[in-house]
Amino acid sequence: xxxxxxxxxxxxxxxxxxxxxxxxxxxxxxxxxxxxxxxxxxxxxxxxxxxxxxxxxxxxxxxxxxxxxxxxxxxxxxxxxxxxxxxxxxxxxxxxxxxxxxxxxxxxxxxxxxxxxxxxxxxxxxxxxxxxxxxxxxxxxxxxxxxxxxxxxxxxxxxxxxxxxxxxxxxxxxxxxxxxxxxxxxxxxxxx
Length: 192
Hints:
By secondary structure, this protein is mostly helical. It has helices at 29-43, 48-57, 62-74, 80-95, 99-108, 113-120, 125-142, 148-161, 166-181.
């Protein structure tokens, strides 16, 4: 009796159709790149730069990454302009971030300055002041049991972390604190 190697009717060097040996040891780089992009985009929108960075971390060759990124952009799965607009809307409306803070975040996520500028036009000075005033009111309400100077200092700090300009914050804190405590406000005691 003779034994044959491999599958019947084919060369003896082909892998078996099932089992660990049937698995491709070297996965197709384009498939890897598509899988990375789809995994990232399933959870939330991402910028092209964020997806490219994830592919680079997994050692996807640049040529392959660019091909997959171009295809995903072509079919609308990656859209930096829409991503920037969405980020501006959510960061301003939900987190109360200033345009300056949002611009920094857009840059960090790989959005170019032209797209970022266009998206940031959705938030004008009035919108920014309205959001800042709401934050000032919330912070002052949360610190109502403290003295005016401490309340002002904490409010300045909170809005500073959100990227609001100090002149705007100073004016709003003074106005809202004066409205909250009335005549007993000592302007000299407030930080400038």
